Design the sequence.
């Protein structure tokens, strides 16, 4: 198994290497992945949307092939880094933001901090709507366990991938190799721990940042899509019900027999929902 990240583009943002994939032409769409993940979680959706959109996927700072930030990795810091990446890519007007898991929270934070940059929000199994989160992430807040759990190991990577998907057919050698390559970066464990401890504790996701963020996003009244997989083992589908109460004007969809990444297990259906939102 070759432990290298799949080929992608590279930009320099604030003097730091940023791994990205930019293709297509048309209204800009930004794809934001989850914690400890990479832009490769959006490969199929990226290809589909790039037929008539300018699609920009990026490894968040300290993830995949992107260099870490100089300061702490927090939600506001990640959102600001995405804004600077868009500047470097020449995208200064409103863009459609599509975020999965942590990427959804980053998208919401960017919308709250710089609303002029955002045309719409699509939140796929997004962080920010509940305290409950997989025990694996909660255990990372326990210092004696964190380093052990974050060691790049094929068995751990396979178990993690298996928890993400409802259909085990999506747990491929290629995805495991990408996960191991990302986890093997010298800064990966530090960045992961900074984010986990900033956003949660061993009890779950902290409530204050969620409440403040959702208040700010609700006040924007942006076109918003909420999507969840019914069989999500990372952020349970019960979060969708709460998301509907906090963002009552948002469109929403629950996929049956789908895990944490509907953009992979339900690519065509997610594409259709996005196009309907943007129409």
Sequence:
């Amino acid at each position: 198994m070759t432990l290298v990240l799949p080929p992608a583009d590279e930009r320099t943002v604030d003097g730091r290497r940023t791994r990205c994939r930019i293709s297509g032409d048309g209204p800009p769409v930004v794809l934001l992945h989850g914690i400890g993940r990479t832009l490769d979680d959006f490969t199929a959706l990226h290809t589909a949307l790039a037929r008539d959109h300018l699609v920009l996927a990026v490894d968040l700072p300290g993830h995949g092939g992107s260099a870490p930030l100089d300061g702490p990795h927090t939600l506001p810091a990640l959102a600001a880094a995405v804004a600077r990446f868009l500047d470097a890519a020449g995208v200064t007007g409103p863009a459609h933001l599509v975020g999965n898991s942590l990427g959804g929270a980053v998208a919401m934070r960017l919308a709250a901090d710089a609303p002029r940059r955002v045309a719409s929000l699509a939140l796929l199994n997004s962080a920010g709507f509940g305290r409950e989160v997989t025990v694996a992430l909660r255990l990372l807040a326990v210092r004696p366990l964190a380093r052990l759990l974050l060691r790049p190991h094929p068995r751990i990577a396979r178990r993690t991938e298996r928890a993400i998907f409802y259909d085990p057919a999506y747990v491929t050698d290629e995805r495991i190799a990408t996960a191991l390559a990302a986890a093997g970066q010298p800064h990966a464990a530090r960045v992961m721990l900074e984010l986990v401890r900033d956003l949660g504790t061993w009890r779950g996701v902290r409530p204050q940042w969620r409440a403040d963020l959702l208040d700010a996003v609700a006040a924007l009244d942006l076109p918003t899509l909420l999507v969840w997989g019914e069989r999500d083992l990372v952020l349970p589908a019960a979060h969708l019900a709460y998301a509907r109460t906090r963002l009552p004007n948002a469109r929403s969809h629950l996929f049956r027999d789908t895990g944490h990444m509907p953009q992979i297990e339900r690519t065509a259906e997610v594409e259709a929902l996005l196009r309907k939102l943007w129409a």
